[in-house]
Each structure stands twice: as C-alpha cells, then as structure tokens.
Amino acid sequence: MNSIQEHILKLRDELNEHNYNYYVLDNPTISDLEFDLKLKELQELENQHPEFFDIHSPTQRVGGEITKNFETIPHEYRMYSLDNSYSKEDLFDWESRLKKMIDGDIQYVCELKYDGASISLTYENGLLVKAVTRGDGFQGDNITANVKTIKSVPLRLKGDYPPKFDIRGEIILPIDGFNKMNEERIEIGEEPYRNPRNTASGSLKLQDSAEVAKRPLECLLYNLTGTNLGVHSQFEGLTKARAWGFKVPMASKLVSSMDEVLEFISYWDVHRHNLPYETDGVVIKVDNLDQQEELGYTAKSPRWAIAYKFKAERVSTRLNSISYQVGRTGAITPVANLEPVELAGTIVKRASLHNADQIEKLDIRVGDEVFVEKGGEIIPKIIAVDLNLRPSHSQPTQYISNCPECGTLLVRQEGEAQHYCPNYNGCKPQIIGRIQHYISRKAMDIEGLGGETVALLVNNGLISDYSDLYELTKEQIIPLERMAEKSADNLIYGIKQSKNIPFERVVYALGIRYVGETVAKKLAKHYKNIVAIAHASVTDLVNVDEIGIKIAESVVEFFNSEKNKFIIERLKQFGVQLEMSAEQLMGQTNILQGQSIVISGVFERFSRDELKKLIEDNGGKVSSSISSKTSFIVAGENMGPSKKKKAEDLNILLINESEFLQKIK
Ligand code: AMP
Ligand code: ZN
Predict the structure, then answer these.
(1) d(CA 420, CA 422)
(2) Is there a catalytic annotation at residue 113?
C-alpha cells in the first residue's frame, strides 16, 4: 500500500469515527471546523486519486446522485406491521394470549415507538449495500442513495458484526430540525410543512440526494433480522447493533413483568415531551428469540410484539377571538386566540386556523368551546368545536374581506387556500417583512441590522424599501430608540459591506415569491445578470432546470412591476452586485445548452462532481438514468454492464474524459 492510499484510509477512519461521535453519540470530540478541514483534505485526495474511490467513503455523504424513479426491490425478510393497543386491558389480554402459547417466564423489551418512515438496511461484510422502504411489506423502494446521506446511518460498521444481515429502523426528523426547516420555508413565502413524520418520509423520496443531505434526518434502529446472527434476544440485538455503530436509543428497557411495562409506559407518557423527536407510543416485544419464533406471526404482524399508543393529548378551551396576520408575501393567516390552557406541559394561547376553508370546515365561532390537540404536529391544532356548549346567539364567522393592516380588499387566487393582501407597496407588514428578508443571513447578511430595527426604520419613515437602506445616514439613525453612535456606525458599515454580496444571493434577497436559495442560484447561473432575468418570459424561464410554471409566473410578475424596476435601478446605482462577477463567469458557456448528459464510471482527471459542474457550467443538464433523451454519456472506467447495454440498445454515444474536454473547449 502506498503512503497516499494509507493516508486516505486513515482520514476515512477518522472521519467515520467523528461522524459516529457527533451523530450517533451526540458527543463530538473535535470542532466542526476541524471536521470540515479533514473532510476537505480527503475530498481533495480522492479527487486527485480516483483509483482509490470508495462509495462508502465519508465524502459520499454529501449526495448528488439523482434518482428519477425509485426501483422496487423485494425484502429478503418481510417487514410486518404491529398490532395496536390502547389500554392496560389490551396489554393484559396480549399477555394471556402469550402465556397460552409458551411455557416459562417471559421477559419484555420496552422501546419507544419512533414516528417516522420505516426503513430496512442491508449490510454485507460491514458495508451498507441497500436501504429499502417498507412498501407493502414484501417489497419496497430502493432509496439507498438518499439514505447514505443520513449521517447517523453507518456506511461501514465497526467491531464484530455478522457477515450479512438486515436491520430495521425508522427515519425521523427531530423537532428542532423540523422547526428550522419551517422557518426557512416561511421566509420564502412557502406554506410550512405540517408535521415531522410526513416531512421525513417526503424527504426520502426527493430525487436529488444532495437535497436530502441538507435535511437533518436521523435513523433510529430497533430490530436485527437475518440468520446466524449470534444473537439470542431482542435486547442483546439492540446492544450489539449499538456497538457496531448504529443509533439505538438508550430508552429501551428490559423488564420481567407487565407491571414494569406499565411503569415504562406511564413514565414516557409524560417524559416524551422532552425528547428531541416525536413518539406516539411504546412497542413491547418478547425478548427471547426462541420464544418469538414459537409465537410466530399473524397475517399482518408478529404475535411477539405489540404497540401501545399514547392518547393524543386533548383539552377543551374557549375561543376568545380570531385575529389575522399578514406575512411578508401578503398571505393572510387566521389565528385563534384561546383562553390560556395547559396542554402536554405547555400553556397554549394561540393556534393557527390556517385559512378560510379551515374555519368553514370547523364552523368555528368566537365564544365556542373548542378541542385543542397536540398530536403528531408540533403546533397545537383545533380539531373540533363542542357544539353542545355553543352559545345560542352565536353567529357564523365572517372571514375578513379587507387587510387588517392597510384596509385593501383581499384577493384569493383560484386553487389557492390563502387570501392575500395585494397592496404590495403600501402594506406595512409586507414592506417590513421584505426588508427583513433582504437583510437576513442567507440573503444580504447585513450585520448590525436586526428585524426590530428594520421595523423601527420603516415606522419612522426613514425607509420604505430595501434600496433605501443605502441612503441612510448616521444622523438619521442616532435619534432612534436604543441607537448609540457605535451601533449606528456598525449599521452603516454593514449596509455598505452588503454591496459585495454575490449576485446569486442578491437574487434570493429580492424576495420574489417562490424563489428560495436554490432557485435563486439557478436563475443567477443561467441568466448571469439581472437584466436578462427581468427580460425572460414565462416560456424561457420554465426551460431552466427545476423552474416550474408557478415560479416562472412569479418572476415575470415581479419584474413587470414599475416599482420593482425602480428599486432595482437604485440598487444598481448604489453598487449592489446585479451580475455574475468575471470570476464566477470564468469557464461558463452555452455549448451544451439543451443537452441531457449521463455520467457513468470512474474517471482519471475529474471527480464525478467536477464533471457535473463542468457540464452545468457549459449549459448542459446532468441526468442519472439513460433514456432515449440522453444526448451522450461521459463514460469512465468500470461503467456498469446494465448501463452499457442500455446505451448500446438505445444507440447512445459514449465518450471518454478527453473527448468530453475537447467538446467543451
Ligand atoms: P404501524 O405503522 O402503526 O403499523 O406501526 C408499525 C411500525 O412502527 C413499524 O413498521 C415500524 O416502522 C414502527 N416502529 C417505530 N418504532 C418501532 C420500534 N421500536 N419497534 C418496532 N417498530 C417500530
Ligand atoms: Zn395589507
């Protein structure tokens, strides 16, 4: 082994260990920066030495593989569902059924029931070979490319593992991560995701694994499956899986009686609210695997396990009033103001009513006694009205017709649930919200300026759109509340610095509805300057990768506005970056415009990511699967035989690295 290879292997081992410490043990031993530096070093070495490529390398976790259609593959061992129970009686019934079928004492393992998407992982010789969804239990979707990006899923095991086994678990989205994702959605004017579970399973079906990599998913494991595993009980299985590097929650407990099971349940019924993720119950399993085998399965589920579902927490309280909030994009959200009530350990005063349809569906009226539930969702939800307690004089709720902030007549587009205030330029919360978005960290990142100061500046008539920021003077700012000379200096300096923010972030900062970070990047890259974007028609825009009709129409509408044109003209005068810099433009052409290109195999000079970038920089589109639409394939070493055959069948040109370089020269 040469020293470079040795170094690569050493870095991989180290990074695997740090990943494990961070994501499985929640106990990092180096800083994020040190980790990133090591990862970068490894990435560079791997790029220079593609001969040492390894799909199980920690560098492969960033994703990038695109799956258009997930392949269906059979489970070697069926994935069953679980019987449910809802009461003590149900559990004692289960126990007596067990006792009829087996002699001797029974021990139970109590585990939390993780609320996400089930997954089956297959390992061979310590390497992750596939990850498959439950599907119908007999076969599921192959989502390996996406699951590989989840950092708590070991790509390579440690210790003394069996040569081949399946392990089952649940992919979940922790509550913090879910909330963070929603903050970002709200920021770009998108509807927030409803709950972590659906968001987790939706994430797994994204086509672009690089997008999956960005989501804070976790994988919690609960069952080993296979033959000759050298494991004799469920609890031993959990312990061993943990030692091989899997994330197996520590809450699991081995007990010897139903009373202890009930104790476990009542403990977690209360304490589950402090967990970083959601759980909707407890799963109780017979511990001994021989006993499990004796008990066997019904048509749908194992006889040796049962789920106990916690009661969704529900209280009733009075609806005092309904208020209406106006968001940055003008979207109106009705909010229920409730008589404060305790629910699942927190005081609830407000609940979202979502939109007019929801109000109508619930027929909710001020003065009603309503049921509020904290179930799968984080934000408490009003699920029904107690009609028995409705006051006799009550009147149906009239949804507002005018903006509560500026009085403008609201509009509601066909097919949309939300009402909007169309007073884009005159409605305070929209004006303030847009400027707050402009200065936010992922946009212009203006240091020294916070959301509250923006509101203060607007309310004092000092600014009315984001271009006004660049004309602010120190003298104007100092008289404001809580503004000292120093903070005023910082503010002015921060604003000035934002003139260096690259074009793609400026596009995001403009706050065009539906244009989030990714779309902004696409637009900037494709059109290269603001004038070109502003002149693009809907038809032009939808031809850009990943831009759909909804986004395209929104972009056109934005640039049709005289006011927006004026604001952008001012941004230009102040020196904000409204085009790609010469540096960014280097090496960009349209040579591959309209071509769909597949990359396959391992390359000498470039990594696959670098090739992908080259293709995109030259206007082409990278596709993961070969079809009749494929323009050509850049083929390296070890191209898969099935791909090769498909290319031959469809008569698609294969070119090598140097031929490709020739093409884009
Ligand atoms: P259900 O979907 O209600 O039939 O519940 C069965 C599902 O619960 C299984 O398919 C698993 O995905 C999930 N589950 C979550 N936590 C556990 C656990 N600790 N043990 C077994 N299954 C679990
Ligand atoms: Zn308004």
Answers:
(1) 6
(2) yes
